[in-house]
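#struct-pred

JT: dropping the chains for the assembly here, can someone run the whole complex?
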Amino acid sequence: MRYEGNVFRPPSEAYSLIVQATIGCAHNDCTFCSMYKDKKFRVRNIEEVLEDFDLARKRYRYIEKVFLADGDALVLSNESLMRILDKIRTTLPECQRVGIYAAPHDIIRKTPQELKELRENGLGIAYMGVESGSAEILKAVKKGVTPEEMVEACHKLNDAGIQSSVTFISGLGGKDHWREHAVESGKLISKMEPDYVGLLTLMVEREAPLYNDIVKGKFELLSPEEVLIETAELIKNINLKKKCVFRSNHASNYISLRGDLPKDKERLLRTIAGALMNTRQIKDERFRML
Ligand code: SF4
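RK: done, full complex below.
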């Protein structure tokens, strides 16, 4: 397959065919993120994108899922996305689901009818980086989106029948704002009612602007135990009526958590309490990765 630069995908798309529909991230400004700092955003030539599915067909006999990269491929017009979905349907008829990274503003920009059209033509899941429920923290990390817009975007996906998978980052408020981050993130998840919540733990690479703040002592990272206390507070503040799969089992996390909310809330809290009692369960810093 033809890839430009580093390619990222959500953990649950590990076995999907990844095709870059766009290159880089249109926003590319979040202070904690270094994923696309080496790329200038552009929409990839659509003919090249379509050709990639022919190349994949020649190479693979069975492709169950497709993931459209890079950072926010939903930025494409519906006309382009429909051409891509049509191509997937005709070239890879066995494909069960197409996934995409979606910036909240791109979701909001689309009409309910456009989102429904994408759903009916194979777009099954959209992954949205929410990062924090706190308006102040979102502003500080230059996310460029408000909590209210996060809710609106998620509800639009839910209404269109596109599964919503949202990601938050433990430790993003640092030592100064950990409680606000936990409480507001839990509350925001309750309002958004996503199908999946993924909780990563903050790791900052040199290329990310936040790295300098850490070096200068302006931003203090949480200790592993503090991350777990924050996670427990976040979970306590999630109150959902419909089922949501909660996962905090990414390589960056200190312990692995997975359960269905609201059913498994108490079990998840007990697992965290157990790890705080027996800190040998906490992953060594050397084994964490992004
Ligand atoms: S976190 Fe997402 S929106 Fe922000 S710069 Fe990184 S890829 Fe772009």
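JT: nice. The longest strand covers residues 123-131. Residues 178-192 form the longest helix (15 residues).
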